[in-house]
């Protein structure tokens, strides 16, 4: 059993605010086959003030993925890929999504970003619990998961104590742990059944929300 799971990759472009408009124009100009600017969606988002600065692209279908649209969204640091969606029916698999993101990185973005003082990076397609939480929190989750009775969850006092130690470690670190990824990690890496993994992730989410509320009141 591997110690990591397949995830949707992220792409970030970070750099000086003063060069952002020039970068945006360069990205639009850099779109080349199979990439193009999504003019139809661009016209729609132009009427939405919240979408100001958004850059929209299309990619034609290729052997490894179908025709799709990629949204490059502006934030305080620069841009990041907000989403990639198929233009036909169905959903993109993780492999297809990541193949599109990698192709955009290689054919479009990486060719221009450094010209304007920006840095571009992508996250890994396979990630472990250490990619999402502190080393201390990861150690506590592994300790809980490998010692717990996987048929009873956290009903035993010793298991409950180890589970609470993990939650407190995440809370104290100030990091955010996506509950879907937590459930997948418990199921795919540490062998919890899918329903129990989801229930534990839901309990984790509720506990973190309660701790955050306590800190603010």
Structural summary, described in words:
By secondary structure, the chain is an alpha+beta fold. It contains seven helices and eight strands; from the N terminus they run ββαβαβββαββαααα. Strands 3-4-5-6-2-7 form a six-stranded antiparallel sheet, sandwiched between helices. It has a two-stranded antiparallel sheet with strand order 1-8. A hairpin with a 3-residue loop joins β5 and β6. α4 runs antiparallel to α5 and α6 packs antiparallel against α7. The radius of gyration is 21 Å and the shape is elongated.
Tell me the structural class.
alpha+beta
Report the oligomer: single chain
Order of helices and strands: EEHEHEEEHEEHHHH
Q: Going across the biggest sheet, name each strand in turn.
A: 3-4-5-6-2-7
Largest sheet: 6 strands, antiparallel
Helix content bin: 40-55%
**What is the mean predicted local confidence, pLDDT?**
91
Backbone shape: elongated
Strands, total number: 8
The CA-CA distance between the termini, in Å, is 43 Å
Q: What value does the Rg take, in angstroms?
A: 21 Å
| H/I helix tally | 7
Q: Which blocks of ≥5 consecutive residues have pLDDT under 50?
A: none
β-strand percent reads 15-25%
């Amino acid at each position: 059993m591997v110690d990591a799971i397949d995830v949707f990759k992220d792409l970030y472009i970070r750099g000086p605010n003063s060069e952002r408009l020039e970068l945006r124009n360069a990205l639009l100009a850099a779109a080349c086959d199979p990439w193009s600017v999504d003019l139809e969606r661009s016209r729609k988002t132009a009427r939405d003030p919240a979408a100001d600065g958004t850059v929209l692209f299309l990619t034609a279908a290729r052997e490894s993925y179908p025709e799709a649209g990629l949204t490059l969204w502006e934030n305080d640091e620069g841009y990041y890929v907000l989403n990639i969606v198929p233009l036909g029916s169905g959903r993109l698999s993780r492999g297809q999504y990541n193949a599109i993101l990698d192709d955009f990185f290689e054919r479009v973005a990486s060719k221009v970003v450094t010209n304007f003082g920006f840095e571009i990076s992508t996250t890994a397609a396979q990630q472990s619990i250490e990619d999402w939480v502190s080393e201390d929190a990861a150690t506590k989750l592994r300790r809980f998961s490998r010692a717990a009775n996987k048929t009873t969850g956290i009903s035993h006092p010793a298991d409950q104590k180890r589970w609470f130690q993990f939650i407190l470690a995440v809370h104290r670190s100030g990091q955010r742990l996506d509950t879907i990824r937590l459930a997948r990690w418990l199921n795919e890496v540490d062998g919890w059944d899918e329903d129990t993994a989801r229930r534990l992730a839901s309990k984790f989410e509720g506990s973190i929300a309660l701790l955050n509320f306590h800190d603010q009141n």
